Amino acid sequence: MNELIEQVAAKAGINADQASKAIDAVMEQLQSRLPEPIAGQLRGLLEGGPGGEGGDGPDIGDALKNLGGLFGR
Questions:
Q1: What is the pLDDT of residues 9-31, one digit of tens each?
Q2: Which of these, 73, 34, 71, lies nearest to 46 by C-alpha position?
Q3: How many other β-carbons are positioned within 10 Å of the β-carbon of residue 60?
Q4: Where does residue 19 rank: exposed (0-12), middle (13-18), buried (19+ CB within 10 A)?
Q5: Phi, psi of 66, rounded to the nearest 5 degrees
Q6: What's the pTM?
Q7: Collapsing DSSP states into helix, strand and coil, what is residue 53?
Q8: C-beta of residue 30 within 8 angstroms of C-beta of residue 36
Q9: Are 18 and 25 in contact (CB under 8 A)?
């Protein structure tokens, strides 16, 4: 999660606290709109679970790039 906060802060030109709040807002929206299995996987990635930091799966950057594809990015 820290990696994501740092990336958002750097790209948006904001501090880490502001980036964290922005990520929380986006996560709330995604979790309310995505099917639970996908929302749960995303939550696990951000919390450092399987596939998250130190996990065996893709890193958070890869996961977010793939998620962006769902929204036409």
A1: 999 999 999 999 999 999 999 98
A2: 34
A3: 21
A4: buried
A5: -65, -40
A6: 0.61
A7: coil
A8: no
A9: no
